[in-house]
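Recall that a protein's primary structure is simply its ordered list of amino acids. Everything else, from secondary elements to tertiary packing, is in principle encoded there. The following example makes that idea concrete.
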Amino acid sequence: MMNVFMKKKSLVSRESFQSTENICLDGGIILWIDLLHPTSAEVSYIAKTYMLDIPTKEEREEIEQSARYWEDSTSITINTYFLMRDSELELHNQTVTFILYKGILFTIRYNEFKVFDEIQQRVLASPKNFEDGFDLVSKIFEVRIEKDADLLESAGRETSDLRKNVVFNEKNLNHDNILTKLSILQELNMGLRDSLFDKRRAITALLKSDKVDMDVKKNLTIVLKDINSLVEFTTVNMNVLDNIQSLFTSQINVEQNKIIKVFTVATMAMMPPTLIGTIYGMNFENMPELHWQFGYPITILVMIISTILPVIYFKKKGWL
């Protein structure tokens, strides 16, 4: 689908096209063409109409610097990560392509992001704040970084709560829940850090471009400072999570040592009577159990009970 934003006088209108047939783009000055889940026909139409070299899906996912940002005499192409959750709530960095050509912004994305919906509403509500595609891409980065900051702030609170839980609630810890929470927070921080690094490279390159005017560069400079602060925050978060993991591992080792100690003492305590019983065979003439009618099944029952009771005890202790 193509969403086309056209500026006419002081207003911006939006036209949505489900196919490339009967497209009319003569309603004003084109400001932004947003391609969401584009078909090959839509990509081909834009490439031919504006003589653009649009990267393929494979090229979009390459991690080399030259594949993330390149600039020629007429256009700037940026491939950058946006963090998202899939249908199974797993975190993934998905690439969004930005192409700036003669003041028009082209965005190519195969996932929906709230930041784009928000910017589209802003463009329609306050068109005077968006003179060209450079204003748009600057504002998209700004809003996205604000959302990343909110994610990091939330992750920081959860990390702090997790550390307090591990340190001060040692006896009532659910090990599986702790490990799951730890893994989720580590994945979130690593995903955000990769996304921030990618945007930092793109913005740094934009600041060096002669095609970007000074007002946009001023805004991008502020965004870059915010990114640097967030990168430092992710580093702190990762260090705290590593500390929690080390502390949690140490606690597990201590608990395991306690369990081994109990088993060792129990084994040592049972060795002398076991040895004596083995030597003499427990076959004394005056053993009343020898003449019991149900002595054998009773003995089997006692053996089963003696096996089950330790298992119940160990489960209550949380050792199993």
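Residues 2-251 form a domain with the Beta Polymerase; domain 2 fold (CATH 3.30.460.20). The longest strand covers residues 75-85.
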